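Posting here for the record, re: GCB.
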Amino acid sequence: MEISIRFTCFSLCLHVFSNVCFKSNGKPVGMLYPRDSESRSLRHLDGMWNFIIDDSATRNESFVNQWYSNRLSKVGDVIPMPVPASYNDITTSKLVRDFVGWAWYDRSFYLDNAWSNERIVLRIDSAHYNAIVWVNGQEAMSHEGGHLPFEAEVTQMLHLNGENYVTVAINNTLSPTTLPPGAIQYKTDPEKYPSGYFVQNLQMDFFNYAGIHRHVTLYTTPKTYIEDIDIITDIQGNDGIVNFVIYSGGQADLINMKVEVVDKENHVVATSNKYKDTVKIGDANFWWPYTMNYSSSGYLYTLKVTVTDVSRGTVDVYRQPFGIRIVRVTNTSLMINEQPFYCQGVNKHEDSDIRGKGLDYALIARDFSMLKWLGVNCFRTSHYPYAEEIMDQADQQGIVVIDESPGVGISNEDNFSNKSLKHHKAVMTEMYQRDKNRPSVILWSVANEPASNKAAAGPYFKEVIEHVRSLDTTRPVTFVCNQDYNTDVAVQYVDIILVNRYYAWYSDVGHTELIQLQLENDLRHWYQTFSMPVIVSEYGADTIAGFHQEPSFVFTEEYQREFLHEYHKAFDKLRAEFLVGEMPWNFADFMTVQGITRVVGNKKGLLTRQRQPKMSGHLIRDRYTRMINGDTCSLK
Ligand code: GCB
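Prediction output follows.
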């Protein structure tokens, strides 16, 4: 027990830290995506790093022995580990794959003198879940939670004209107050388990991949720099209205500000010299999902901000892409630019062979190619924020995103504590900071399938949702619900209802003939109770590619196709009323924990894990393509 407390406490309570800075008025600022410009350079530290796990019984020896103060090769046998990637599936070691605790990475790099007058920032786009970072043995930053970026200025810690090394310790332990929540369970029966034996219990249905999952970047800014940019757009007839605020950081007050709105053809279409202003773009190209307007789908402008100092000339330049669009929810519709939008959706995961959750440009390109092949115009970042490079593609390709937090599986009483609530709000702030200027993001989802039938869920979600609304007045807010309309206590606080349903899978398995009746009755209850539009945010059946049986049988491709088709019949009826979207679970098969209800992972994909279609993929492609061509019942 003593070890349990020490282990859990050390692993999880140390270095609790949120990376977002706040202005004196409480406004969060910071975390602009690193981009090069006339005044900024960047260098990715991706590649092969040295790697070693701390599998000591206390999981704490690495700190006792201060592994961070020397190169890891001096403390033990390091192995090469790619960054970005999850470490779990890289080796043939079960210990590494299933490891729980601190895993250590380091690498060296050289810097010349070119950056001697610059402010140098180290940014990690995502590390799971808790991370501590040292530069040349000095602690530079720490961060709680995966999936979101964190950074710190490290100028003073670096050796210009010499060798440097960076060390990153990450801990994947999930506790009742982390997001996602989980619990370490000690198995104490000496007849069955060796002393100190513990397991990590998960409350989510995906493999708990860990590692440095996205880019590690060193970037420069001048000493006076553009710290943040807020852009809120509106539309007036054919004109676009762009409201912006520029925040500065650093040594001096900014002297002159030049703001230009640049269109895709590189024409400057509006200018301002204020840090906070509203400009109008006549006859603007609005940002549209590609299924609503081919000619200007995914249309992005650039807000080019130039800061000059009269004595020194140009100080900093930053180019922020943005789109002009508005979102609104009525009683029955989800409106983009005042036109009803129907979500021909899918749910996704960041998941693939070998890399786990590691960023991979080839995979991103393939996924977007398959999204378009399927006719998908909307996806949910189930169940955590995805890489910024994925979000960039959604912005550019005109695909709508329901941006979900890592609040998946908030189901036990102790997941609703004040500590959890505080952390959940901090995560939402970080997410908002990262994604606030993205036109593709039309809806915030603060959680997936919490126990929203528990009394504690009411005040908890009221507060989280109000917090998001206080940050962002332009997008609706929701959470994804799997409770019943008459027992749920939190849906009353959302702007649009998202429900997950598995009729003929988790209930009445095999009975596809019941789907239409059960689904229609259920969805009508939700609508009648809350008078809000509804999206079926998950429905699906596990299917092993290549299994066939006629008549259909569970786990065969025939069953999945028939199952989806029955849902579609109900959807087609309700679309004319209040249903504004459908999202099969899942775009592709993905890995889960080992268990007797999962056959080497969750197999509800329309595609295999290698992104090849099952029969269901063809069914969805046929359905969504017809919707795009207006062949089925007209969109509301
Ligand atoms: C759900 C969860 C998702 C699971 C899925 C399933 O409701 O939101 O994370 O993977 O069901 O397949 O059971």
